[in-house]
Design brief:
Distance between the termini: 10 Å
Strand content: 25-35%
Strand order of the largest sheet: 7-1-2-3-4-8
Structural class: alpha+beta
Shape: globular
Largest sheet: 6 strands, mixed
Radius of gyration: 16 Å
Number of strands: 8
């Protein structure tokens, strides 16, 4: 049943991409998911090893072109490549399943536009507009205007560069799985 739902969503996304080619930019955002907009949703993430779970916030940002770093007050402290960028944050100082993930730390990954990336265990994911559309249409939290922002998140804002830190993959790879997050929580 899960695979049928994903297939239907993918077919719907493909149809919307085909139909959306003649739409204006605002119509594309409504039908296909917004571009250059941070969309956020909570996820109850469970670590398979410990069985513990915690609430994480998953932030999505899709762009068709690279966004350069900008050392201005409201600019990005690092460049955002074209594709689907996902940022994981915690509202608490102790995300019990991922050590180091506090309210001043974050996990960041960009899946390049239209290029498959292997994340772990030969699981690949493409940062395509179609994939973003499937996620956007499948998760109602992402479509709520209260969960969308065109503002640079504090974690990535140049003016906050000394407040927030990105966790390195080497430090969290035994506690966090992109494969589990993508397959079980976002595309499932």
């Amino acid at each position: 049943m899960k695979k049928i739902s994903i297939l239907v969503a993918a077919l719907f996304a493909s149809a919307m991409l085909f139909l959306g080619t003649g739409c204006s930019g605002d119509d594309d955002d409504t039908l296909l998911g917004p571009t250059k907009t941070w969309c956020t949703m909570p996820v109850q993430y469970k670590n398979s090893d410990s069985g513990n779970s915690t609430e994480l916030y998953v932030h999505f940002f899709y762009t068709d072109e690279d966004i350069p770093a900008d050392n201005s007050t409201n600019g990005y402290k690092t460049a955002i490549p074209a594709g689907l960028t996902i940022m994981i944050t915690s509202q608490s100082d102790n995300a019990s399943v991922i050590s180091g993930l506090t309210n001043t730390a974050y996990i960041l990954k960009t899946f390049p536009k239209d290029k498959a990336s292997t994340v772990e265990d030969n699981y690949s994911f493409t940062g395509s507009r179609a994939k973003w559309t499937v996620i956007y249409l499948a998760k109602t939290d992402l479509r709520k205007s209260a969960n969308q922002s065109k503002t640079v998140p504090a974690q990535l804002n140049y003016s906050q560069r000394n407040v927030y830190t990105e966790l390195s993959w080497e430090n969290i790879k035994d506690q966090f799985s992109w494969k589990r997050l993508l397959a079980n929580y976002l595309l499932g």
